[in-house]
Amino acid sequence: RASGPAVEGGHGDARRSARVGTEPSARTMERSRPPRTPRLPPLEAKGEKPLFFFFVVALLNVVDSFNLNIVWPLLPFMVDSYGVARTEEDLGAWVGAAGAAVSVGQLLSSYAWGALSDRIGRRPVMLIGMCNSTFSVLVFGTARTYAQCLAGRFLSGLLNGNAGVVKTYVGETTEKSQQTVAFSIFAMAFGFASCVAPAIGGFLQRPAERWPHVFGDTLFETFPFLLPMLCAAALTSVGGVLGFLYAPETASQWRRMQKRSAERERRMKKKKHQTRRQKDVDAAADGDFDGEALLRTAAEPESFGEKKTVGPEVELVRLDESGVSQAVVAEAPAGRGAAAKATETVARRDVAADADADDIDADDADDETRLLRGPVTTDAVVVRIARDRDSESGDSAHALAGLREKGWDAHTVAAASSYAVLAFIAIGYDEILPVYAKTREDLGGLRLSASQIGIVLIVGGVALIAFQLFMFPLVLKTFGVTKALRRASLAFAVVAFVAPVASVRGVVENPALKWFVVLFSQILKIVTLAVLFTTVIMAVNNSCMNRVKARVNGAATSCAALGRIVSPIAHGVVFSASLRLHENFQQFLVFAFVSACALALFALTSRLPSRLDQPPREAEDERAVGAEGGEAAG
User: Which helix (H) or strand (E) holds 336?
Assistant: First the structure.
């Protein structure tokens, strides 16, 4: 540090005075720069959200469900038209492989989409996914070979990460009081997709054959499965436009991106000022002595370095033309007690002066060091700020310690694994039901047409909407997330055995009784799966902090994709093997396999604690990422 007489003498004093009077400080320039603002104001979790907002977000999410349900009624006929299956017994395996292709794409890309949304935001990733979905369904709809059919399904999973990102978006933009509403609307949207998509896929496939006077000698004669996929492309386009207009970025993610941007700017300034510092040192060595330059050189290694959780941050404070002082603001280790507050001030003075402690915002000192501002005329002032947290005692604090440190814990893994097993069960049942319904009666099937299969799926979708509107809130209020998840797992193990009863002798010969059993089984299945999916998604979201939620949902979606890859193949192989048994009740074999998987899901969900019934405290989550709102409030 330069002494007083040296600073005051010679040409260095003239240069210093001129610079002090004419140049603004780096901090002043940084504060005067207007912040970059998004097109739509970032959305906070606090406050009631209108139903239209949930409709838009549900539309961004329902695309995956719609594109999945629109495929199942037509996929057996589409694969059969390629001639790859030599016998009807082998068709299930080929259909299962095509159904698994979309999950292969999700497995490879879901976590990457979640990580990308952590960097560039939830909103742009969701909009990119909608555009990519439009492209992929058109590739699938124009497929003329089995290879292109596989490619179209693979791209549907690879190019769209909305399955995980939208769940993260809802978790970051809704409070506990509205999460039930949000995920119920998601389930109703899924029910809507279950109603409309199978009808479109079943009724609009091969239009040139069904309505030759309208579609004969047109594009749809060359591509018989294109018309339903055009409807899917229209839905994704509408969803993308509404998302662009009405789905803003989440406020918590926006603050994290702003903080990273500020850190990048600091690193760039550090390099720039290191160069300037070296020039000042070289000039001083050559005899061109500048007291302020040397003082700045001493301060800059800390001022423009990376922030430290504990340790000093040194910055120059220009006061007036009489001189230059420096303030050192350090942060002490965290303690216990109430809110953060300034606790100790130690000053070393050459002349008596007091620092204005009111200029230090104690709330903004959390996880950061702050510059002491005030009429400081001394050589140095050191302010130590102690950061305190609300003390927590008992088992709850111990259980949440790891969660707050990493953002996730073992229960996050258990919830994500439950989601994967549930996806394995659901996709296997949804894939095998149309094949079972299409199979001849002498092989243990129902011999239903594509239109009849579509009717079955539509009835299930209508039942799902009614259940979500009138029954699901009551179920969730009565049992909570984890208990409802476990009990629905047990229920589905029983529900799986209802559908094959429709092909039992004495039932299959009676059309009315057969249809009653088929529709009843579909209603029970869709309602039970609605409870399972809604609660497991809430459990995954409630098991982690916002700062890692996108990656957790991406990892959970990848795990679910792995289950969806194995499930259609496994169920298809089991069903094909059951047809070769030529025994009574052989159709029960594949559904017994589904029931066993549901019992495994119950065993896995038994590990989930009741604290997953609600999200972790948002205040703790915000503190964990570093009091991001402090600078915005300032």
Answer: strand 335-337
Helix (H, G, I), strand (E, B) or coil at 192: helix
Closest CA to 112 of 161, 76, 68: 161
- Phi and psi at residue 56, to the nearest 5°: -65, -45
Question: How many CA atoms, within 13 angstroms, populate the side-chain half-sphere of residue 235?
Answer: 25
The secondary structure element, H or E, covering residue 320 is strand 311-320
Is the pTM value of this prediction over 0.85? no
Q: What is the pLDDT of residues 81-119, one digit of tens each?
A: 898 888 777 787 788 788 778 888 988 999 999 999 988
Query: What angle, rounded to 10 degrees, do the helices at 122-141 and 162-173 form?
Result: 150
CA 374 and chain centroid, separation: 44
The label of the residue with tokens 């994709």 reads: 561
CA-based radius of gyration for the chain:
32
Tokens of 425: 């069960």
DSSP structure string for 341-398: EEEEEEEE-SS-----GGGS-GGGGTTS-----S---SSEEEEEEE-EEE---HHHHH
Residues 146-162 as b or e (16 or more Cβ within 10 Å = b): beebbbbbbbbbbbbbb
Mapped onto helix, strand or coil, the DSSP state of residue 335 is strand
- Residue count of the chain: 634
| Residue linked to tokens 């109603």 | 195
Side-chain-facing half-sphere of 408: CA atoms under 13 Å: 19
Q: CB neighbours of 225 closer than 8 A, spacing ≥ 6?
A: 74, 78, 140, 141, 143, 205, 206
Evaluate whether 390 touches 530 at the Cβ level (below 8 Å). Answer: no
C-alpha distances (whole Å) from 472 to each of 163, 261, 307, 477, 607 are 22, 43, 48, 8, 23
Token output for 286: 């050559």
More confident residue, 1 or 209: 209
- State how far Cα 107 lies from the chain centre: 15
β-strand partners of 384: 330, 344
Q: Are 196 and 232 in contact (CB under 8 A)?
A: no
Dist. CA 252–CA 625, nearest whole Å: 10
Q: H/E/C letters for each residue in 407-475?
A: CCCHHHHHHHHHHHHHHHHHHHHHHHHHHHHHCCHHHCCCCCCHHHHHHHHHHHHHHHHHHHHHCHHHH
Is residue 543 predicted with pLDDT exceeding 50? Answer: yes
| Residue 190: per-residue pLDDT | 74
- Is the separation of the CB atoms in 113 and 168 below 8 Å? no
Q: Please check whether residue 38 is in contact with residue 248, taking contact to mean a CB–CB distance below 8 angstroms.
A: yes
How far apart, in whole angstroms, are the C-alpha atoms of residue 307 and residue 102? 44
Would you state the structure tokens that stand for residue 475, as one six-digit string?
């179920």
Measured distance CA(484)–CA(597) in Å, rounded = 18
Question: How would you write 234-288 as a 3-class SS string?
Answer: HHHHHHHHHHHHHCCCEHHHHHHHHHHHHHHHHHHHHHHHHHHHHHHHHHHHCCC
- Beta-carbon count within 10 A of 210 CB: 13
| C-alpha dist (Å) from residue 278 to 272, 273, 298 | 10, 8, 11
Pairing of strands 335-337, 388-390: parallel
pLDDT, tens digit, 9 for 90 and up, residues 609-621: 998 888 776 544 4
- pLDDT given for residue 466 in this prediction: 86
Q: Would you state the pLDDT for residue 505? A: 86
Nearest CA-CA partner of 497 in 429, 402, 451, 440: 429
Is pLDDT of 223 > 90?
A: yes
